[in-house]
Amino acid sequence: MGVYIVDLQGDTITSRVVIRKGTILCLESFTEAGQQFSFYDQEGRPLTAKDGLKVWARNTPVALRDDSNYFFINYGEKAEWVSIVASIGSFA
After folding, report:
1. CA dist 73 → 10, 17, 23, 41, 58 (Å)
2. Which of 13, 14, 18, 83 qualifies as a FRET site for 26, CA 20 to 30 Å off?
3. Which residues contact 82 (CB under 8 A, 6 or more apart)?
4. Around 66, how many Cα atoms within 13 Å sit in the side-chain half-sphere?
């Protein structure tokens, strides 16, 4: 995973390309306990804290169990938007 910037130069033409390799997929499920968010790599393998997965929700780190690739956000009294950020190393 990573982001690469490639500069191409030839004659009088220059181009810059940003290549993003890899992805973190987040799947959302609705359960009785709340919304469940699961994380997978670009090949569909579950990502866990053992893999270096870190997740933030509401600007707060989420404590993931080592063997788990998901967490819940409980249903509340009112509807609200929650920002979620997932990262592995410097890739988010």
Report:
1. 52, 38, 23, 21, 10
2. 18
3. 57, 58, 73
4. 1
CA-CA distance, 89 to 19, in Å (whole number)? 18
Confidence (pLDDT) at 67: 83
Looking at beta carbons, which pairs linking 3-12 to residues 24 or more positions away fall under 8 Å? 3/91
Q: Which pair of tokens denotes residue 14?
A: 């220059």
List the structure tokens of 90: 């410097």
For 85, other C-beta atoms within 10 Å of its C-beta total 14
Hey, is 12 helix, strand or coil?
A: coil
Report the C-alpha gap between 77 and 37 in whole angstroms. Answer: 20
What phi, psi does 36 have (nearest 5°)?
-105, 130
